[in-house]
Amino acid sequence: MKPILEAINVAANSSIKVETYDNNTFCESTGWHVHPEFELVFVRNGSGCLNIGSKKHDYSDGTLVFLGGNIPHADFGNKDYPDNLEVVVQFKKDFLEEKLRAFPELDGIKKVIQKSRQALVFDTKTKKSLWQQFERFEHLDNQGKLLNLLNILDYLSKFGVCTPLFDTLVLSEFRKDEIGRLEEIFEYVNNHYQKNISISVISSQLALTPNSFCRFFKKMTKRRFMDFVNEFRISKAVEFFNENNTVIADVMYNSGFNDASYFTKQFKKYQGITPSQYLKQRYRPTA
């Protein structure tokens, strides 16, 4: 089965995306999927099966896995124990090719990132040595998250014991030009979500007709383009709410919506509750 291409929303003011899940905020399943971003996943405990490319790898006491971009995979975590923790760190290839390249001192980190294109599964000792640093992500600001990731990668490059799942680089089931075109679309939405997004404008930039553009996007992601845009904008709205922006109208406009009832409808569609309910839950006074 061909994987679905997933869009990773890395905030404009950050080089990485970090999501932390416990047993109550379990990572929503995306099924068999692929994305251009590198992905480092920590699962504290429990058992499961890693489905990565053509390989399957069982684990019984959590796992720590590092994937290069464009490697098809299924979800990794489990709900075996109430104290389980899953941390997912994702970053784009320019993190390696542009940002880290400026520092020769980080050569070891660059090598372990490059090696992740073979899909690395680290041993239990390595995972347990790093669990406190992964747990720390949830309480850090963007600068702290970046420094914490560099510390983790430094440890992995020096002391990490891992097994590559593949002897050579994994070849994507998608053509390079297809992936490049989809990355352009994701980047366009990331840069223009606050403005009016026109299918005719973005399709012309890709030298496609609007109908060809819509067919291409549906083929690659199994979803309509404007559904993707709305979900992306709602994810941005959640970011704004979580940054102590509590005026719903401001968040609505900043995330690209102009109609309050439509914003509420889309927010409930993707978050399960209305914006006002989300704010009440997040900022409810503690006793």
Strand portion: 5-15%
The description of the largest β-sheet is: 6 strands, antiparallel
CATH class division of the largest domain = Mainly Beta
Number of strands: 10
Order of helices and strands: EEEEEEEEHHEHHEHHHHHHH
CATH topology of the largest domain: Jelly Rolls
Structural class: alpha+beta
Instruction: Compute the number of structural domains.
Output: 2
Low-confidence runs (pLDDT<50, min 5 residues)?
none
Mean pLDDT: 87
Measure the end-to-end span.
50 Å
CATH architecture annotation name of the largest domain: Sandwich
Rg for CA atoms: 20 Å
Describe the strand arrangement of the main beta sheet, using strand numbers. 2-8-4-7-9-10
Total DSSP helices: 11
Helical content class = 40-55%
What coarse outline follows from CA principal-axis ratios? globular
Organism: Flagellimonas flava
Keywords: DNA-binding, Transcription, Transcription regulation
InterPro entries: Homeodomain-like_sf, HTH_AraC, RmlC-like_jellyroll, RmlC_Cupin_sf, Tscrpt_reg_AraC-type_HTH
GO molecular function: DNA-binding transcription factor activity; sequence-specific DNA binding
Observed structural traits:
45% helix; Jelly Rolls; 10 strands; two-stranded parallel ribbon; DNA-binding transcription factor activity; RmlC-like_jellyroll; Tscrpt_reg_AraC-type_HTH; DNA-binding; Arc Repressor Mutant, subunit A; alpha+beta; AraC-type DNA-binding protein
